[in-house]
Structures are given as C-alpha cells and as structure tokens.
UniProtKB/TrEMBL annotation:
It is found in: Cell envelope. This is ABC transporter substrate-binding protein. SUPFAM superfamilies: Periplasmic binding protein-like I. Belongs to the bacterial solute-binding protein 2 family. Keywords: Signal.
Length: 328
C-alpha cells in the first residue's frame, strides 16, 4: 500500500547520512580531483547524501554555506577552507548546533582545537622540504654553485596552508643553502595567474634559472610564459634552461611534462581524501573519537635519476624517475 511504501522510504531516509561539504573552489586540477574523491566516496549507494557548495575561493561564501548546512541540520559538515584564519565564529555556530565538523586539505587556525573534530590533509612543509632537498642535492651532483641559483616563487593563495608550508620550506632552504630568491608573487593556484606572474617576472629579471611553482596549474602557466618569451624550460641549468618545479602531480598532463623535462620535479600532493573522511565519519557514527590529524601519503617524482632519494630531517625519501610506462 501507499502507506507502507512511504514508511519504507522514511526508514531508508532516516538511515542516510547527510553531509554538507563546503569546497573552497575549482581553481586547479587538484581541486577537481579532491571534489571527485568526495563525490565517489559519499554515494547514495553507500548510504550518504552529499551536499556540495563551491565557495569560489571566497571565505564569505564558505561561511554562508556552513550556515546553510546548519539550517538544513545536516549530520556532518566537511570544510575545505580557503585560508587558515577567520573560522572561529561559524565553527562555534556549528558546535552549538551539535554538528560535527571535519576539516580537509588546508587547516583552520583556531585557538580552541575542539572547534573541529578531525582534520585530514597533507604536510605541506614536508613537501617543500623534500623539494628543496632535491634541488640542493641536484645542484651538488651537477656541480652547480648554490649561489648561482636565481629562484622565483609563484605562490598559491596567500594565507592557505598549502601556500604557507610550501613558501616556508623554500624560504628556509634559501637561507640554509645560500640561494638567491629574486621574488615571491602570488599565483592563486591557477594557470592564468601563473602565466601572468611569470611573464611579468621575466621582464623584471634576466637571470632566473629556477621557478618554484606552488602547484601544477601555475607551472603550466609559467611554462607557457617562459616559452612565449623565447626561453627553454628544462633541467640543464648550466646550458641556460629555466628549471620548473611544482607540487600536486595529480594527472597525466603533469606526468607527461615531467617525462619531457618541461618540469624537473613534482612533489605529489594526494587529493583522494574521501575514503579517509569516510573512516572518520564511521568512527564518529560508532560513538568513538577519531584521530585528530591524519596525513596523506605522498611521493616525489623527478625527470631524471640524478637524485635517487632526498634526505629530510634525517629521514630518506625515494624520488621516482618518471618513465613512459607510468603514463599508461
Ligand atoms: O596543491 C592546489 C590547490 O590546498 C593542497 O590547492 C591544496 C592546493 C593544491 O589549488 O593545486
């Protein structure tokens, strides 16, 4: 009967876990992969209803989205925050509404750590330490004087954890190794801004030999600018190449750039956080307390085998050489 059917639907509905996901934007390939990971994890088949709001890189939009989720009385809020600061008030609102909050990717800087239940993401400073250890070891292996390195940094969104960690790792290495850091300019993690920033930098400096891009999309843009200006991208700094380094490594495009020596080094940043978020939610569903912080596992890739592994804080990390078969 109709009544029985509607009851069935109701009991099914009540078992469904509703998640409000405030994604910060769609600025990069990494971001699309991250959204995809959430979508493919939290399916109706698995008993979830995933509501996604795209913040378009604006914190105000994300705050609005969280307030909307609170009004809708979702079971969980997942927040991928654009920048670290400014979340206290809205997270207090979520807590007052008894809605658990899981932060993913970048971090939130809050004085009260109980304002969110758990965080899952990457160690951005470690990514930078590996990248800069690689550059140092590369220079040593090739007999390139450290003080002949003239580096520009195309930064991500200022105030985002990924920018803060990757910039800090570079700045520290510049001091340690005596490199020249000519400029640091924001590129907002996008290809268009990466290109714009690089073409401006090439007009300002004629001795750039390393471009440190805080993500792949900026690197794609920077490479366009370098080639448009008549320079050659590649690892052979001594022969006049401009070396491009980057982070993410999420798709075939960047791997093929590595293979062609258009990018020399990529520090992987793993966007597939959905399954870890699901574990956290299942732990909370079971009435247990999940780990506060979980880190993604990530690898380093290079065009060539000059540096087979990097040493960071006494620990060795392998560097995988990009080969054709890895593109399949
Ligand atoms: O590296 C970049 C994206 O926060 C790890 O954001 C993320 C970064 C990622 O736009 O491509």
């Amino acid at each position: 009967t109709t009544a029985a059917t509607s009851q069935d639907t109701e009991s099914q509905d009540s078992k469904q876990i509703v998640i409000g996901f405030s994604q910060l934007g769609a600025e990069s390939d990494w971001r699309s992969a991250n959204t995809e990971s959430m979508k493919s994890t939290f399916t109706a088949d698995q008993g979830y209803k995933l509501l996604i709001e795209d913040g378009q890189q604006q914190q105000a939009n994300q705050i609005m989205a969280i307030r909307k989720f609170i009004q809708q009385d979702v079971d969980y809020i997942v927040l991928a925050p654009v920048t670290e600061t400014g979340w206290e008030t809205v997270l207090e609102e979520a807590r007052s509404a008894n809605i658990p909050v899981i932060v993913i990717d970048r971090q939130v800087a809050v004085s009260d750590p109980t304002l969110f239940n758990s965080w899952v993401g990457s160690d951005f400073e470690l990514e930078a330490k590996k990248a800069t250890a690689w550059l140092h070891q590369y220079a040593v292996a090739k007999g390139i004087a450290e003080d002949s390195l003239h580096i520009v940094n195309i930064q991500g969104t200022i105030g985002a954890s990924a920018q803060i960690g990757r910039t800090k790792g570079l700045q520290d290495a510049v001091v340690t190794y005596g490199w020249n850091l000519l400029a640091e300019v924001p590129g907002e993690f996008t290809q268009a801004k990466g290109k714009e920033a690089m073409s401006t930098l090439l007009k300002q400096y004629d001795d750039i030999n390393v471009v440190y891009c805080e993500n792949d999309n900026e690197a794609f843009g920077a490479i366009e600018a370098i080639e448009d200006a008549g320079y050659h991208v590649g690892s052979d700094i001594a022969a006049g190449d401009i070396m491009v380094m980057s982070f993410d490594g999420v798709n075939k495009e960047v791997l093929s750039y590595l293979l062609q020596d258009k990018i020399s080094y990529v520090g992987e940043c793993n966007p597939n956080q959905g399954p870890k978020v699901q574990n956290l939610i299942q732990t909370l569903e079971a009435g247990k307390t999940p780990d506060k912080y979980s880190y993604m596992e990530e690898h380093a890739f290079a065009h060539d085998a000059t540096v087979p592994s990097v040493e960071v804080d006494g620990q060795m990390y392998p560097v995988t050489v990009m080969t054709k078969d890895k593109l399949k």
